[in-house]
Design a protein that fits this description.
10 strands, binds flavin mononucleotide, single chain, TIM Barrel, alpha/beta, two-stranded antiparallel ribbon, 14 helices, 328 residues
Length: 328
C-alpha cells in the first residue's frame, strides 16, 4: 500500500509502532521494521545517551530497514540530557524521530540539519497545527482512546481524525485504538495516511516484555482501562489493577489538594517491575481501550501481514461491494 507516510519514511506498509517505555527496545523496533512497518526505539527507556547509542547499534544489527527513535519531552523540572540523546540519534545514523509530550521546537534545528524526519505525536488539532508550523514532517494524532497520555480534551478519533484532515497539510497517522485491518481502513477513510499502534504491539511474540503483560492485554476488555492523574492534568490511560484502584481512591479522597508525591508509590519507577519482572500490580501502566480488540499474540510479521491482507479484502470486497455499480 502506498500513502504519503510510506513515501515519507521509505517503508512498505503505513503502520508505525509508537514509542513505549520499557517496551520499545531494539528487538521490537527491528521486528516491526523487518515486517515492513516502522519500528521505534523508546529513547528515554535507555538510562543514558551512551545506552541509547548501544540500543541503536543493536537495532542496526537486527534490521537494515528504516527505524526511528522516540523522544518524549516530559513535564519535569530535571530534564533528561536531551542534547546528548539527540547526539546519539544523529551519530547512530537514525533518520526518523517520533517526538511526543511537549513542543519539540527547541530541538528541531539539530535534528533537521542532520536530515532527520520528524513525526510529532499529539492529542489535538491545535497541537497538530503547531507541529506543522514549526516544521515537523508528519503528525501522529492520538485520540482519547489511546494508551498512555490522551491529553485533557477527550476527543475520540472518530471526530479528531477528520478534524485533523480538515486542517493539516502534512501527512498524519491515526493513533489510539488501532488494532487491525478495520482500524487501518477506517483511519484511511477518515483522512489519515496510516496508523500508529502501541498496545497492539505489546501483545506480539517479539515484544521483549514479561509474558504476563501480554496475557493481561489479551485477557482485558475495552472496559478495563482507567484514567489516572487527571487532577494533576497529566492524564494517563492505564490498565486497571490493585495499584490503580488505590491511586483512584487517593484522587477521590484528596481531591484538588493531591500532589505527585501522594501517588509516587503507584506511578514512579514501576515500568521495569511490570514490563521486565511481570509484577502486574506494581503500579499504573499505560494500556489502550483497544485491549478489547486484542485476542492473540502473533509475531509482528504475522500481525502486519494479516492487517494488510485483510485491509485489501475490506477495501476491494466489503467497501466496493456497497457501491451501486461495483468497480470492475
Ligand atoms: C505501555 C505503554 C508505554 C508508552 N510509553 C510511551 C512513551 O514513553 N512515549 C510516548 O510518546 N508514548 C508512549 N506510549 C503511547 C504509544 O506510543 C501510543 O501513542 C499509544 O499506545 C497509542 O494508543 P494504543 O495503545 O491505543 O495503540 C505508551 C503506550 C503504552 C501502551
Amino acid at each position: 500500500m502506498k500513502t504519503r507516510i510510506t513515501e515519507l519514511f521509505g517503508i512498505e506498509h503505513p503502520i508505525i509502532q509508537g514509542g513505549m517505555h520499557f517496551v520499545g527496545f531494539a528487538e521490537l523496533a527491528a521486528a516491526v521494521s523487518n515486517a515492513g512497518g516502522l519500528g521505534i526505539i523508546t529513547g528515554l527507556t535507555q538510562k543514558t545517551p551512551a545506552d541509547l547509542a548501544r540500543e541503536i547499534a543493536k537495532c542496526h544489527d537486527l534490521t537494515d530497514k528504516p527505524f526511528g527513535v522516540n523522544l518524549t519531552f516530559l513535564p519535569i523540572v530535571n530534564a533528561p540530557d536531551y542534547p546528548g540523546y539527540i547526539s546519539a540519534i544523529i551519530d547512530g545514523g537514525v533518520k526518523i524521530v517520533e517526538t511526543a509530550g511537549r513542543n519539540p521546537e527547541a530541538h528541531l534545528p539539530r535534528l533537521k540539519d542532520a536530515g532527520i524526519k520528524i513525526i510529532h505525536k499529539c492529542t489535538s488539532v491545535r497541537h497538530s497545527l503547531k507541529a506543522e508550523k514549526i516544521g515537523c514532517d508528519a503528525v501522529s494524532v492520538d485520540g482519547f482512546e489511546c494508551g498512555g497520555h490522551p491529553g485533557e480534551d477527550d476527543v475520540p478519533n472518530m471526530i479528531l481524525l477528520p478534524r485533523a484532515a480538515e486542517e493539516l497539510t502534512v501527512p498524519f497517522v491515526a493513533s489510539g485504538g488501532m488494532a487491525d485491518a478495520r482500524s487501518l481502513v477506517a483511519a484511511l477513510a477518515l483522512g489519515a495516511d496510516g496508523m500508529n499502534m502501541g498496545t497492539r504491539f505489546i501483545a506480539t511474540r517479539e515484544a521483549p516484555v514479561h509474558e504476563k503483560v501480554k496475557q493481561a492485554i489479551v485477557a482485558a476488555s475495552e472496559l478495563d482501562t482507567r484514567l489516572v492523574m487527571r487532577p494533576l492534568r497529566n492524564t494517563e490511560r492505564v490498565l486497571n489493577n490493585a495499584a490503580v484502584e488505590r491511586l483512584l481512591e487517593k484522587e477521590k479522597t484528596l481531591g484538588t489538594d493531591i500532589t505527585f508525591e501522594d501517588i509516587i508509590e503507584e506511578v514512579a519507577g514501576v515500568y521495569p517491575k511490570i514490563m521486565l519482572d511481570g509484577a502486574m500490580d506494581a503500579g499504573a501502566w499505560s494500556c489502550g481501550m483497544v485491549a478489547g480488540l486484542i485476542h492473540d499474540i502473533p509475531t509482528c510479521k504475522e500481525l502486519i501481514d494479516r492487517i494488510m491482507a485483510e485491509a485489501d479484502t475490506l477495501i476491494r470486497k466489503r467497501l466496493a461491494g456497497f457501491l451501486a455499480e461495483p468497480a470492475t
